[in-house]
## 1
Amino acid sequence: MAARVQHALELLKKTGVRITPQRHAILNYLMESMGHPTADEIYRALESKFPSMSVATVYNNLKMFIEAGMVHELTYGDNASRYDGNVSEHYHIICEKCGKIEDFSYPYLADVEHHASLETGFEVHGHRMELYGVCKACINKEIQQNKE
């Protein structure tokens, strides 16, 4: 992971972006956590290290990372956006009880893009797939509660 963060920082430097300690910490947190945090969660995780950092600083940096293609913003209805430091092609499965998001890969969806293009004449630029269910921890919690 450290190599990914370092590579991302080098790309930012090449585009003339100054690498502040806060910027480095936000990017590092995103790329290492792999937990799809909200901006507020990132802020809370880093505020002890950077007491003068504001939530606005986090949002501004996230916006810049998104524009640079280093982070994806995940929006789900009215809930707060979540941010994904993994910009490789992958999909998400979301727990309907606790909101946990996990990544998974499935390489064959490129065929869906191709088929959709052939059928509609569209030039497909990408797709997004989300699966919904209940995570293992919530299932186990429910089983435990039913036993009591």
Note: The chain has two domains: 1-87, 89-147.
## 2
Amino acid sequence: MAQSEDMTRCIDLCMSCYRTCLGTAMNHCLETGGKHVEPKHFRLMIACAEMCRTAAHFMLINTPHHRHTCAECAEICSECAEDCERIGGMDECVAMCRSCAQSCRAMAA
């Protein structure tokens, strides 16, 4: 069974969100310090990156379980977007997480 156009787009968004969250956490947040490296925020960003990678992986291997990983990914991405917005200075991360959450919600349905 071939991937749908929506699934292919979701995989791409998940991988972009993975790169954005991990890159932002390891570069911007670590170098900025302060609120950016508070354990709760930093763990959330790393969890978001990993969940995005996992959701993409489950869609790539074409298992019906992708619905569960996508549902969790949407939840974590939404939470990460809110927290990055609260701290500020991470507009790219906020936008990426929101796009990924929206796409994953559709895949989880």
Note: DSSP finds four helices and no strands in the chain.
